[in-house]
Amino acid sequence: MTTESAITLMAAGLAFLASVIAAAVAGFTARFQRFAKERWWDRKAEAYSRIIDALSGVVYSHEEWYDAELEHRGIPDEQRNEIDEHWRKGYAELKRATAIGSFLISAQAEAALAQMWHDTGKGVHPADWFGQLESNYTTASDCLKKLVGAAKKDLGVT
Fold first, then answer.
1. Cα separation of 152 and 158, whole Å?
2. Quick one: CA torsion of 120, 123, 129, 132, rounded to 10 degrees?
3. pLDDT, tens digit, 9 for 90 and up, residues 84-129
4. Can you give the residue ranges of every domain in the chain?
């Protein structure tokens, strides 16, 4: 075997080794990118789930108070505490979600939350408790519908 043949054979071997390494790196990169996409989807789904759960709690609390007012009935203390707890937890989570904004949720979902905060109590006298309650219930319910739609669209869920 001549020196030229040995060099050609070594170059072909190195080229083959380089292509095997490149294929392995490309495969690893593709798997990592897929993993990262799935992980990001999971984080977004969790964020939407928390926000929708919080909105549901707020809607539930407003609905309970609203129904009690319409029916002119009182709410027992134990149930009142439960309703208030739903509202407190939901309100705090919605404030956090609004502060985070479009980092995890879509611009459409962020706009729905911003619209809810903007429209809550709009055009209602601050001393009108029933009017405030009705406004809060309506804006939270509308936001919930919009947010569910935005979440389905953003997550690609039908």
1. 6
2. -20
3. 998 999 999 999 888 877 788 999 999 999 999 999 888 888 889 8
4. 39-155
